[in-house]
Amino acid sequence: MRATDQLMNDCSETWEAATNHAFCKELAEGTLPIEKMKWYLAQDYKFIDRFVRLLATAITHAPTLADSIPAAQFLAVITGPENTYFLRSFEALNMTQEEQNAPAAKSTLAFQNLMREAQVSGRYEQMLAVLVVAEWSYLTWANRYVAYSPDLPFWFSEWIDLHCGDGFEGVVEYLRSQLDQVWDGLTDQQKADATQMFARAVKCERDFFDASFNSQD
What we know:
Structural class: mainly alpha
Number of strands: 0
Shape: globular
């Protein structure tokens, strides 16, 4: 079994709760109340800065240039099309500056802090553990809803599109493969630390969807 499969299996209950969430189901069906989507977008956008820093740091720790290139290419997607999606959605939903710049919620801060912890750890496998969860969990839920209605507003549909398809599947496979490849060379303590980081990231994903569905922590 791949190391990343084992990591996911070890926290399968939390993983299922995060990737089969009512928030995602209502988003894909177009029934999610706009106020909940606004809350989610404002909070999720706060992850961009910390995520970019984490991914950029992981690039510097990649074993070879070849190992770093896919991550660098993905970084351009985050700072390009994904960033633009948020800005277009803010405008289309008539979100005020106050709504866009709402204080970070407790669940948001928890995930931001976890990303920073992984970044400053200096450990490639810990950075990968968080990155794998962040992208693999989104691929998992988005793949459930690829057959969404053509009438779905873009602030729903494009969020699904950004997290499925061959390109994004390639990103997830790359991140998983990087973690799989370094796993056997880790000490038992390093494996334990990365396992804990993975599980904490999955919990952060579940908690964030819970908070988004309630539009509050």
